[in-house]
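Regression report. Comparing outputs from two consecutive submissions.

Submission 1:
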Amino acid sequence: MIREHPNPIHCILPPHILDSIKMRGDEKMKKMAERTEKLADKTRVQREAAAPEKAFLSAPTISGPTTPVVTREVYNGGRRVGLPGELVRAEGDPPSRDKTVNKVYDLTGKVFDFYLNAFKRNSIDGQGMTIISTVHHRRKFNNAFWNGSQMVFGDGDGMLFKSFTDLSVIGHELSHGVVQYSGGLMYKDQSGALNESFADVFGVMTVQYANKQTVSEANWLVGEDIFGPEVEGEALRSLKAPGLAYSDDILGKDPQPFHMDLYVNTSSDYGGVHINSGIPNHAFYLMAQYLGGYSWEKAGQIWYQAMQKLNNPMATFADWADMTVQTAWDMFGQGSFEMMMTRRAWRLVGIHL
């Protein structure tokens, strides 16, 4: 039986990669994977115990003459367990001597700017929430996660993984917070896969927005800069080509499907939330290609507004598809090109409405 997790710890590194390392890696790698897995499980339990019953349903849209400003705090975890660690750089402080602190300070600001300028959302919760980050968490920690109140980054082991301070990773993890404060999605089966997919979609859009890339110019990769020198692969995930992001002797092969015919039924990873998310990921990619231009102008607006209106924590892929088509109808009109292309994208991944 899969336990339900309304507010679990959200780690960028999926369990199937850790399983692969345990099967294929040397003794040092196996022990690392086991430690990472245990730490993730322990933190999930702590997160659930501390989680509020329910976050408010949706963020207000910003209006009026006052422009919200970002508030950031970056802590040094000192390669220890405790969080958040020592405050190194607060909002408005001069740069630190620690380049990782400065990088995270800058990149979390880019995520804030993306949500503010593209969607008129004032930080993660829509209410100006301080963006808290801890770098140098634990020793050679191979992961990054959102624990419900802050971001946490490991430095990587230097072999399989480098630092996890990648903009798409930061956008992904903070977008889990946006889902959390938009009514939430239960972290299991298809609703959990939608949770992961939303984070992937908005993670890649953060990169595209920062680089001012059109849908045809972008590479649509999540975690492009986290693999170490010994890994064969482009990135952790690909929205353009789920299943082809990496193929490595130690990490295994990217297991993500791009179509419902390839849907993976499994009891691990809360029902395959990091695997089956490839299907809605690819639907968004296809829709964005059809609509063209910048992804956040039309495709992203449909996805974002649909999340604000969903109000269904156990939503299936079909529920989400129906909500996105309805949102496209509401925004652009019945029978509009945008509505028709949204429906077509879902059909191409095997979901017929």
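Submission 2:
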Amino acid sequence: MKYPKKVVLGDITVRDGFQHEDRTIPTRAKLWCMEQLILAGYKRLEVTNLGNPAGMPQFADADQLLQAIHSSKLIKDKLKDVELTAVTIREKAAERAFEVRQKGWGPDRILFMVSTSEAHHKKNSGLSLEEYWKMCEIYIKKAHQNGIKVCGTVSTIWGCPIVGPTELKKAVEFTKRFLDIGADDIEHADHDGSASPDKVFDYFSMVLKDIPDPKRHVAHFHVTRGWGLANVLAALQAGITHFEGTMGGIGGQPANFVDGCPVAGTGKHYYADPGIVGLVSSEDMAVMMDEMGIDTGLNIDRVLEIGQATERILGRRLRSETVHSGRVPKTPTGRGSPVTI
């Protein structure tokens, strides 16, 4: 097996993870998570979505949270080395990012998103693909003028929940187009949980052949069908070095109910059972890579502590295995007797 010996792991719990919850997460809890993740060594974090919170009420505190992060004494000395990202699917959200950036507490990076499936893209953004590309050409330039980096997300790479199978080559074309119009990096997203490890390896091999700089690619896997860490391994073997996940593997789609009230959320085009979606567990991914001898730059024990606390915040057992099983013991544990066969 050949894989990179050093990686960059991002965590997107506070944005992608908490957007899936059906009760409002307190701003104080979000701030605590951000502080602890930074103290654990994370350098790339997603904070919020700057779009209209009517459909996603979890982000109604976006301004308050961004201000709290930038005024936190606990992480004051570390924040300069951290890249904070906010999702900005459309123009108003991007303009909002520019405004708060000029006020001194805005994001360092914003995210635009295209889907290779026209139907999925229209549902997600409200625009056709060509309309959206034109918007991106304008707003990527505006972002850079405001000192903000841009991540271009490419979705439905391995499949679409609306139309089914999609073509890998189209995602490679979209990646090139994003970079050609100025995007700083690309999030390659399996939002549907359709990616199998062999196709992940094939896709990222194609991508790195055409755009060989691994710093420009971020792998984002969902675990709808349980293949998350297998896909992480396949991407590693293809040469990918940047990954992201969520504490406890939470997230996956905006909730359709929040605090007992129906909201726009994701709507009906995903899955009837909201419990089957989710992302790769940040804890399990970090522990696995550490066990493989890959340098993550993280305090692994602290990451596990954050995972335990996240379960307390949400009041339930989450998807992480290592939060409960711990790291692989390096000395005798005294647990039971040797098994003889």
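Expected: both submissions complete independently.
Actual: both completed, but the second showed a warning that disappeared on reload.
Relevant detail on submission 2: Residues 8-320 form a domain with the TIM Barrel fold (CATH 3.20.20.70).
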